[in-house]
Serpin family F member 2
Amino acid sequence: MALLLRGLLLLGLSCLQGPCLVFSAASAMEPLDQQLMSGPAQEKLPPLILLKLGNQEPSGHFALKKAPRDCKGAPTPEETRKLAQAMMAFTTDLFSLVAQRGTSPNLILSPLSVALALSHLALGAQNQTLQKLLQVLHADSGPCLPHLLSHLCQDLGPGAFRLAARMYLQKGFPIKEDFLEQSEQLFGAKPVSLTGRKRDDLVNINQWVKEATEGKIEDFLSELPDDTVLLLLNAIHFQGFWRSKFDPSLTQRDSFHLNEEFTVPVDMMQARTYPLRWFLLEQPEIQVAHFPFKNNMSFVVIMPTHFEWNVSQVLANLSWDILHQPLLREKPTKVQLPKLHLKYQLDLVATLSQLGLQELFQAPDLRGISDQSLLVSSVQHQSTLELSEAGVEAAAATGTAMSRMSLSSFIVNRPFVFFILEDTTSMPLFVGSVRNPNPSAQWERKEQQDSPDDRDSFLNQKAFPRGDKPFGPDLKLAPPSEEDYPQPNSPK
């Protein structure tokens, strides 16, 4: 398979595909910073999101004008467009903060998974808690957001994209029937009763996670709190097959430029005539390429032509309108792309608090779930990605057409950001960044002429103009002509 992605999220409230939460009942609340285990460097995920009983009285008088049960029918094209734009805005907000806090050279998460978990939470949220959730998700759809997201996910990449959800409940804890019904209807989160025997429950939960992620995530929980009330598990599985296969015999060891001074060796996949949709943003200089999967998905590489960048800067220059380029035509391109194996896990409490959801972890109004006061104590997320050569052979007609066209090249040999997008809507399923695809390898100092940022050497080579700046072979880029590609405008 060309691409394997697994996402798991724990969110305290219900069990969604990707995210997971655990709610716990407690007579007295401990300080939140003592309850949480954070940090991506842990080998095992800490406990799931905990929902605890609290004694805070919710405030505010915001009520739903339309109940989720009244949201019916498939989303209109306009609703789908607005939802995709909102998801991209949420993805930018979320991943920018995750990247600021992250210490790993490579990051990956599923914003769709997190959004599903939060929208599941919105089913039982009221007043200011609901308002904050909708605000963070950039949702204009109000109470119909869970319905719209659920319906859209059902149509994503049939055969390649799978969502699995499960809800574990403490025996006898009063969860409102309406919340249970909508959780199963919209998210497929079927309620399962905990036995009360911690060892047996832990084995059963970890076994379900392992099966839902096809063995890619094992021993997700190291322990189960004594006072667990509600555990929401969500797993995302995306298996992407390249529409045009990479030939394994062409894969060879090559250099990946970490910065202007050092490289690491990587296994670089190659193709001489790859059907690629790509373009160049001039301000700043960023190369964007869509590597097509079967099932209407794409692996989108966003690669700055310089090293002095951070994720926030790159994402600030991107938007749904820029990445959504349905008229962009494929062009036969010489391609090099590193093989990847990424795994990342983190606790999202601090990040979600920075986004404005502090109330979830202090005194949320979740009376749509239970009349007893609850709060979210942890939000755990884990994703993995495997990128390799195999895929589905491209149609013969495509190869014939490509043989008549001039070739350019797109070489992914430097740090980049990536998305997994659904092509029709440009809905972001996964987002990540790669600064070192081989972190265990020893860094190698490179010769000056090997640096992609060596301006003196490339100015002496045969270069071509792009606006008022030349680009030469050392940048490994030959942008398509204007007649081949419509040039999108850089955001202001």
Summary: Residues 11-50, 52-66, 391-407, 453-492 have pLDDT under 50 and may be disordered. The domain at 3-240+342-386 is CATH 3.30.497.10 (Antithrombin; Chain I, domain 2). The radius of gyration is 23 Å. The chain has two domains: 3-240+342-386, 248-339+397-475.
